[in-house]
Design a protein that fits this description.
212 residues, alpha+beta, five-stranded mixed β-sheet, 7 helices, 5 strands, binds FE2/S2 (inorganic) cluster
């Protein structure tokens, strides 16, 4: 029978042995050269945007969205970031006369473009008619979606005026009218978590000068 003492290895002995094995496996001779882990310097590119009537020259990381450019670089925080995925409409601005979700496009795609944000539509002293109508009809509660709703509403009425068809038209060759159904369909990309929809529709109806 084997002497019991042959197998009696102390706990300290096991730990020292384990550490020695680990060090041998990572000895300098076998160590892989470490790659530099510093991130590369960001590359920036020049872009000029005409925002609310003023030329703004910027040098941006090409991955910067128009939304982040407006909020973070130009400090125009009226335009809101809701989902950052094109699903809520909070970031809606007007570019060259058409509404877009600014979270879905890169600033560099808009070199030379004219961009209107909520700050450029009107001022507290001289509200745009749509801003005034939202106030009059209580078209907001928390107000987070409101800048996007207002920019979108202005864009919607312009689309209707220009004869741009929508899904609710039975005849897409007919001239669209500013009906309640038409405006609700066109505003469907703007989500309001507070549910101020009917007041928004009333505000739009007043500006459109039409019956909902
Ligand atoms: S933040 Fe752009 S659509 Fe939601
Ligand atoms: S007013 Fe609160 S999300 Fe629209």
């Amino acid at each position: 029978m084997a002497d019991k003492s042959e197998f009696s290895v102390s706990r300290r002995g096991v730990m020292i042995g384990g550490a020695a094995t680990a060090m041998a496996a990572h000895s300098p001779a076998e160590a892989q050269p470490r790659k530099a882990t510093m991130p590369p310097e960001p590359t920036t590119m020049p872009v000029t945007l005409k925002v609310n009537g003023k030329d703004r020259a910027l040098s941006l990381d090409p991955r910067t969205t128009l939304l982040d450019t407006l909020r973070e670089h130009l400090h125009l925080t009226g335009t809101k970031k809701g989902c950052d995925h094109g699903q809520c409409g909070a970031c809606t601005v007007i570019v060259n006369g058409q509404r877009i979700n600014s979270c879905l496009s890169l600033a560099l795609q808009h070199d030379g473009d004219e961009i209107t944000t909520i700050e450029g539509l009107g001022t507290p002293d001289r509200l745009h008619p749509m801003q005034a109508a939202f106030v009059k009809h209580d078209g907001y509660q928390c107000g987070y979606c409101t800048p996007g709703q207002i920019c979108s509403a202005v864009g919607v009425l312009d689309e209707i005026k220009r004869g741009v068809p929508s899904h609710v038209q039975a005849d897409i060759t007919a001239r669209p009218q500013a009906t309640g159904a038409e405006m609700r369909e066109r505003m469907s990309g703007n989500i309001c978590r507070c549910g101020a929809y009917s007041n928004i529709a009333e505000a739009m109806t007043e500006v459109a000068g039409a019956k909902a």
